[in-house]
Design brief:
By secondary structure, the protein is of the alpha+beta class. It has 15 helices and 15 strands.
Length: 498
């Protein structure tokens, strides 16, 4: 097959405010603000770009990282891509991130591996769920996403194994097993966190890990590792595959699916099986609490937006690294971001999924989530974080109080109000989200910031009252009596020192 559609030359990467660009343009144009696409695509693309960056020039330590700079990183990546140009063809003798030998696996439709597309007997609710034909650019984007975000289930043809004697694709009865979820998804959908600078170059530079950081993390016994396009594995358990399982490169581009693109679909089978966070293995962008008997990860939750997890993600600011949630990407980059930039952002996102009988899917309240929070470098510190914790604790108390008051309102009328109380609480958090960025800017010490926080507290209390009034009508005398007796009282919240 002739080599065609080179990812370095052809536009396929969505960029905010620009459209599709190629890999070379990413490292040639310093004006690209951020990646585009949905949250899953953003994470998968960021990991691919970081894999290119780590392969091009992994700094030895923080001094080497500072000396490199964002422009130096982009220059080294341009040189690297020129060197490995022939390994980035989507079609040809050595197709990018694909396994020609997996052609023996059954052909799967493209729509079947897209979580948002309704296939089989699934009801189509809107036009976004209709399966469409994919361009080569769309296929390249899907391929990159599948490497880490493939959903578990029966869509993989696990009757084909490329490593002789490999039993990882067989169940206890010796029959082909259902495919395992990708390491970037796991059981319910992991929450991923990244640092963002003023442009894409700065974002890559901030998230670039040094060899010293990787070694000290004790998560990747194989170190940085070799990029898979430089040396693709021959099978699920070959030496190259085992090296990817133990290296950072294997978490950035996991190859959890062995694929081969075709005109109407792709040959699709389970690929390299990576260890989970319960085994001490996780992506650097994932937050895990290792301090308990069993590790616990932060999951995506459409009912609890990522901004509400900020105190958990930044817990290392005020406590020992062995306690609380730990995200290597944030812990390794916050100090350097504060030193190098006046302001930066924390981006969090992912995909929430459900599972039944080994099949993963997105349904019901499952959805993609993402949030971006801007932080001022000069403000970050123990005082700022302690104040943020206090304000978040106050909001949690407001939410709990609202839930109890709505429950009391309906109980007074002999009605089960659990669902409506949950909806009222959800509305409250939605209203608070619009002012949370403003709250972050006023968690510093000083009279002016204290006054601003007090004003925000009145606004948040108003949101709680607004949610209560929305779900607790007072049209009849009986409703009015229940509304008045259960009405929230925010005097304690408003009188506390802000």
């Amino acid at each position: 097959m002739d080599n065609r559609f080179n990812l370095i030359d052809e536009p396929w990467i969505p960029v905010a405010d620009v459209g599709r660009v190629n890999l070379a343009q990413v490292f040639e144009n310093p004006d690209y603000r951020a990646l585009g696409g949905n949250p899953v695509q953003k994470i998968a693309l960021m990991k691919l770009l970081l894999a290119v960056a780590q392969a091009a020039c992994t700094p030895a330590d923080e001094d080497a990282w500072r000396a490199l700079g964002a422009q130096g990183l982009a220059k080294r990546c341009r040189t690297y891509l020129a060197q490995w140009h022939d390994r980035f063809y989507l079609y040809g003798e050595r197709p990018f991130l694909q396994m020609p030998a997996i052609k023996a696996a059954a052909l799967q439709r493209y729509g079947a591996v897209l979580p948002e597309v309704a296939t089989g007997n699934t009801t189509v609710l809107n036009q976004g769920q209709v399966e469409r034909s994919l361009s080569d650019a769309d296929k390249a984007l899907l391929l990159v996403a599948l490497m880490g975000f493939a959903l578990g289930g029966k869509k993989t043809d696990n009757s084909v194994s490329l490593s002789a004697g490999y039993a990882g694709k067989r169940n206890d009865k010796g029959k082909p097993s259902t495919g395992k979820p990708g390491p970037a998804v796991a059981h319910m959908g992991l929450l991923h966190n990244l640092l963002l600078g003023e442009n894409l170059w700065q974002s890559l530079w901030l998230n670039l890990l040094t060899a010293e950081q990787v070694e000290h993390s004790q998560r990747y016994s194989g170190g940085i590792g070799t990029a898979p396009w430089e040396q693709m594995p021959a099978g699920e358990a070959c030496p190259v595959a085992r090296a990817l399982q133990d290296s950072l490169m294997g978490r950035l581009v996991p190859l959890c699916r062995f694929c081969l693109l075709a005109e109407d679909g792709l040959h699709y089978s389970e690929g390299i099986a990576h260890g989970s966070y319960k085994e001490g293995r996780c992506d650097p962008s994932v937050a895990v609490n290792w301090s308990g008997k069993d590790p616990k990860a932060l999951w995506c939750n459409p009912e609890k937006r990522p901004w509400r997890e900020l105190t958990a993600l930044l817990g290392f600011i005020a406590q020992q690294q062995s306690a609380g949630f730990d995200c290597l990407q944030l812990r390794a980059g916050i100090d350097r971001a504060c030193e190098a930039l006046e302001s930066f952002s924390i981006w969090s996102g992912g995909l929430r999924v459900s599972s039944n009988a080994g099949e993963q899917y997105a349904s019901g309240s499952d959805d993609v989530v993402e949030s971006r929070l801007d932080l001022h470098s000069a403000a970050l510190g123990d005082i700022w974080f302690a104040q943020l914790q206090s304000e978040m604790a106050g909001l949690d108390e407001l939410a709990k109080g609202l839930y109890g008051r709505v429950m009391g309102y309906f109980k007074a009328q002999l009605v089960d109000g659990a669902n409506l109380a949950a909806q009222a609480t959800h509305l409250f958090w939605q209203l608070c989200e619009r002012d949370f960025q403003n709250l972050l800017g006023h968690c510093e010490s000083g009279e002016a910031h204290q006054h601003a926080r007090q004003q925000l507290r009145h606004r948040f209390a108003g949101y709680a009252q607004q949610a209560y009034d929305r779900y607790c009508p007072k049209d009849t005398a009986r409703q009015l009596d229940a509304w008045a007796s259960c009405r929230p009282n925010h005097a304690k919240y408003l009188s506390q020192e802000a």
